Amino acid sequence: MSFWESSSGSWDAVVTCFFLDTAHNIVEYIEIISRILKEGGVWINLGPLLYHFADMYGHEDEMSIELSLEDVKTVALHYGFELENHYYAAFWTMRKKKRVVASKEEVLQQLDSESKED
After folding, report:
1. What SS3 string covers the chain?
2. Is the distance from CB of 47 to CB of 16 less than 8 angstroms?
3. Cα–Cα distance for residue pair 61/12, rounded to 1 Å
4. Which one of 15, 48, 53, 110 is most buried, counting C-beta atoms within 10 A?
5. Residue 79 has pLDDT above 70, yes or no
6. Mean pLDDT confidence for 71-91
7. pTM for this model (two decimals)
């Protein structure tokens, strides 16, 4: 018996953080999360769907099932979940320039003058 089978219906909460897109089969992940949660249990997810497997499998490897966010929500609904909250997060990548252009005071002055223009 696997850990997941022995944990059926025993968890109050499951938190997946930058995890779902590691699945070759995201539907299987959702099925397991549904199975291990108690009735009324909470699933909290944080992280993008940036899948890593699209170009990495050969003929003998398991194909990757890479669903859109809307499809993930549809699958979750099928497994008995209901969406309570959907937060839109700010996510970006920035690179610092080699030379700092402005001091903190100059940046604050610029922001102040822009807010007065609005």
Report:
1. CCHHHHCCCCEEEEEEECCHHHCCEHHHHHHHHHHHEEEEEEEEEECCCCCCCCCCCCCCCCCCECCCHHHHHHHHHHCCCCCCCCCCCCCCCCCCCCCCCCCHHHHHHHHHHHHHHC
2. yes
3. 34
4. 53
5. yes
6. 90
7. 0.68
